[in-house]
Specification:
Layout: H1 2-26, H2 34-38, H3 45-61, H4 64-87, H5 93-106, H6 109-112, H7 120-134, H8 139-143, H9 145-155, H10 158-171, H11 179-199, H12 202-222, H13 227-248, H14 258-274
Helix pairs in contact: 1-4, 3-4, 9-10, 10-12, 11-12, 13-14
Length: about 280
């Protein structure tokens, strides 16, 4: 069994080495790919996010080949970022791997040390305490609500961050007494957004749009709904209806009038509802 495991590890390392060499070749000024050579860490950021979401979508599908493929695309982004950084003498893929390995060991003293834990909650508490120490935060500072919420706002997708922030604020009592207050806040923000669109600067319009979206997320939280899942479902239904429309037309959609498009849309919507 151990021999088989060692063989698997060697094959995995060989595959990773081949990937590293391919990426290095793509970035080589001598015969490399012009597109890859033009990339920077910042220009690749959208692809990191996109590939992460595609991994999630593949996992939800349950199709193993798709999961493996999308994980490969995400791994490529890690290797490419490390390759670019190494070219500028900043850090290497080796440093990335060593860094996460050491972090895992530090944050699991119940596995790699002599700390005893009773359950997963104690594991999480230890993790957060060690994490705060690593970041140079005092215990009191790391426990501040604003410190936690600031981290969410910086690192999570906006919809997810808004839900997380509102949940944590509610846990300390920063909450409406009942759902009527949440609905009142929604209508208040809707009115302010409408006024901003009609009379105020683009900056104010953007700010009021954010406030309105945050109010909608509060409604979702009170009704135990996931706004990200809800929006994703709407996106999928929109695309499905367009697919239905395009399946029955004989010319580009741009050649149809608005009334004709609306009729096709309603037909597609009815057909999907029956499926």
């Amino acid at each position: 069994m151990e021999l088989s495991q060692n063989q698997d590890n060697m094959e995995t390392l060989a595959a990773l080495q081949e990937l590293i060499e391919v990426v290095a070749k793509l970035r080589s000024p001598d015969g490399g790919c012009p597109w890859d050579l033009a990339q920077t860490p910042a220009s690749l950021t959208p692809y990191v996010i996109e590939e992460a979401y595609e991994v999630v979508d593949a996992i939800k599908s349950g199709v193993q080949d798709a999961i493996a493929e999308e994980l490969g695309d995400l791994l490529l982004q890690v290797v490419l970022q490390a390759q670019i950084a190494s070219e500028y003498g900043q850090f290497s893929l080796e440093a990335v791997a060593k860094g996460i390995t050491q972090k895992l060991i530090r944050r699991h003293p119940h596995v790699f040390g002599d700390v005893t834990v009773e359950n997963a909650d104690e594991v999480r508490q230890n993790w957060e305490q060690i994490k705060a120490q690593e970041k140079g935060e005092s215990s009191a500072e790391s426990q501040k609500l604003s410190t936690k919420l600031s981290r969410y706002s910086r690192t999570l997708p906006p919809l997810t961050a808004a839900m997380k922030i509102s949940q944590k604020a509610a846990e300390v009592g920063f909450e409406w007494e009942n759902i009527d207050g949440v609905w009142a806040k929604f209508h208040e923000e809707l009115q302010e957004f409408q006024q901003a669109v009609a009379q105020e600067s683009p900056e104010r319009q953007q700010a009021e749009l954010g406030d309105l979206l945050f109010a909608i997320i509060q409604l979702a939280r009170w009704h135990n709904l996931d706004p990200s899942e809800g929006l994703q479902g709407t996106n999928q239904r929109f695309v499905q209806r367009l697919q239905k429309m395009e399946a029955v037309v004989n010319r580009p959609l741009t050649d149809y009038s608005l009334d004709e498009l609306e009729a096709l849309w309603q037909q597609a919507k009815a057909e999907l509802a029956q499926e």
